[in-house]
Structures are given as structure tokens and as C-alpha cells.
Amino acid sequence: MLKRILIANRGEVAVRIIRACRELGIETVAVYSDVDKDALHVKLADKAVCIGPAKAAKSYLNKNHIIETACLTGCDSIHPGFGFLSENSRFAKVCNEIGIKWIGPSGELISLMGDKAKAKETMQKAGIPVVPGSEGILEGLEQAEKIAEKIGYPVILKASSGGGGKGIRIAYSKEELRRAYQLVKQESRNAFNDDSIYLEKFIENPRHVEVQILADEHGNAVSLGERDCSLQRNHQKVLEETPCPIIPEKLRQKMGRLAVNAVCEIGYTNVGTMEFLVDKDKNYYFMEMNTRLQVEHPVTEAVTGIDIVKEQIRVAGGERLSFSQKEIEIRGHSMECRINAENPNRNFMPCPGKITGLHLPGGNGIRIDTAIYDGYTIPQSYDSMIAKVIVHGKNRDESISKMKSALGELVIEGIDTNIDFLFQILDNKKFQANDYDTSFIENLRKGKDVSIFG
Q1: What's the pLDDT tens digit per position in 155-179?
Q2: Domains of the chain (ranges plus CATH)?
Q3: Which end of the chain is more exposed for a tag (fewer CB within 10 A), N or C?
Q4: So what's the pLDDT on residue 448?
Q5: Does the annotation mark 338 as catalytic?
Q6: Of the listed 16, 233, 252, 292, which one is catalytic?
Q7: For 168, which DSSP code?
């Protein structure tokens, strides 16, 4: 078992990891930027070290400072959480090279799965259906046009090193493809220092479904079921639920088996998520693999009773998975809403500032993951997500009712939030009837449905 973990992150995920470590009897070292000196993760960790100024590039993304801190504080491992350096293959490799255990998959596998084109090729060889498109990186616009003509419009161009909704454009014609091609290459170059892109058939109005996997270093791997992450804004998830309401049991089992077989074939270890697009005919296609802990992991924890963070720490310490696939049972339904410091009526403009009043809901089947507290000042330097509300009910209807009750009780004063926006989504008849897809929020904003934007 690991003895002292440095948490290379901040906010609610850092707090989440600290709590898991406490239960396992593991010491924690928090790192923080000067603007985060009063952050909750700093207060909860056994030791905290300032590693730089507010700008992430000089603090939470500063690999040298983080590794130096881990060495100076006697840490035997680093947990990257999600975001920041969590999918930085070079950082993972360096950690392991100097004898600090990286709590995640190997740097080589992060690199392989982080290259979207190579990941697609790898999964195709492993027997997982993929979206028709280019075989690898596009060599030029002419090749893109030929492929688009062959598979038919619309098509989608994606940055090979992409993530977080960046470097993506949809084209419905040759003219749009020509315009989008240079835009995506430029966006990819600016965001990821890599202008390689690839092309796929654009699956219209799909559901975004992901399969959660866990694998140890002894050849054991399991699927913890799937999550529906279709409610998105600009490719950013807003609300997640499990089980996916459109996936029948036989398909659920099949997708889980394929995901497990694939990770075993490539030698993947620790936590990971296979992401798929599912069309109206229940055809499913591999989209990408996230080689880290996901923001929405609590909904899977709720229906399985498995602490994913504790399990990935045990796996990193060399232990075998503490359960088999046969022992995993999905119970009830769980839902998560992401609470952001933003104003939906002003194009979701971030709204950092001081929290002047706070009341968090509670009760049976309600969980809050957050790092905010009354009097805390939310900095403007980082992501606007400040909390997650997770509910667990006996079925989807009960989860929706419970979430509405929880959001109705949640009070965060002093800043703007998206609480009302989320509540109105939950109150939408189409959402309640499970009649939604990845275009749901966009259509609402365009007035194609009952408007929730006033």
C-alpha cells in the first residue's frame, strides 16, 4: 500500500482524493497556487505546499515544481485527479522513471489513447466498432474531401490531440469542409501545439454513452456499467446519469465485455473510460478513451457501491481488484448535476467571487462533492465548476424528483450559478420522458423547444 500521496490538483477533486486517502490511512500532500492559499484542499491535507502563482502554467501545470515537491515531502506517489496534468503522458513517464508511482495508466498508454486517431485504430483492431472516417491523420484537404464524398456528409473534423471540446468542427458540405479544415488545424495548433487532425462521419443526434472500467496490474479488469453524458453545452458535460435509459441489458453487457477485452488486450491498468456514440438504432461507435478519473465517477459509485478512487489507489499500490465482474451489481439509478459559477443568461459567462451565504442539501441518497464554503472566494483563474450534486434513487423518476428537491434546497449566495438552468432542464417534459440527445441544450437555446433561457 502507498503511504504518502501528493495530489497534483485543486478544488473538489483534490478534496475527494484526500477523503479517500484518509479512509485508507494514507498521508496526503496538497499543492496550491498563491490564490488558493485558503482553499479547502489546503486545509484538509496533512501537508500543503505553495508551488507558484495563480496562472496554471506556473503552478498546477508546472511539472518540475510538482515533482520537486513530491521528492522534498517524501511522497511515494502522485494522484493527478482530472484536468491539468492528468493525461500528460510525459509527466506520468517521468514520475515512474524516478520512482514515484503514478496513480493511473502508464505514460505509454496515456500517449496512445491521447492520440485520437491512433486510439481509434487500436480499438478497431481490438474488435470495437468505430465511426467511419479517415484511417489515421489527414494528410491534406484533398484527402479530407475524398473521404467525405465516400462516407457522405455531414462529417466532423477533430484535433488528434484534442479534449475538452476544443478543435472540433462539423461540415455539412464541401464548402463548409474547406472552411472548417483550416480552422480546426489552427485551433489544434493553438490549444495542443499539434495541428494533426482526422475526419469522421458525423452521427447526428446521438447519445453520448461511456463505459467505466477498472483494471489491476495482475491481468484483472472489470466494467462498472455505463453512464449517459448526452446533456452537453459546447461539448462540455452538464448532467450525467446511470444506467443509460436507452441501453437494453443485452447491449449493456456486450459493450461492457468489449471494453474489458480491449483494455486487457492493450495491457491497460488503473481507471479508464471508453466513450461511445449511440445512434437512434442502437448502433454504437467508439469515440475516445479517457485515461483518468472522470468528473462524473460518483454516479457509478452510487449504483455499484464501489469507491472508485480508493480502488484506483489500491491498484496503484500493486493490489488486485477487490471484486470480480460477477460481484458487481447495478442498483437503482443515479444522476449528477454540475454546479458552475456562471450566468446562463449571459452566454454562461464565468462569475467568480466571494460566497456570502451557503446551504448544502442533504438527506437519503443525496451527495455533494465540493470544495466551497461560506466566505470562500472563487478565483477567476480556473474552471468554473464549483460543486457536484449527486442523487441515488430506486429508478430514474425518483432520481429526477430527488435532484429537483436537492437543487431547490441548494443556496449559494454572492455569485451567479447555473442552478436554475439545471432545475429547468430537469423540469423539461422531453428530458423527463428520456427524449433527448447531444443536441438537446443547443436546440433549447435556439428556441426549437420550450425555452429555458427566459
Answers
A1: 999 998 876 667 899 999 999 999 9
A2: 4-103 (3.40.50.20), 132-201 (3.30.1490.20), 207-445 (3.30.470.20)
A3: C
A4: 57
A5: no
A6: 292
A7: E
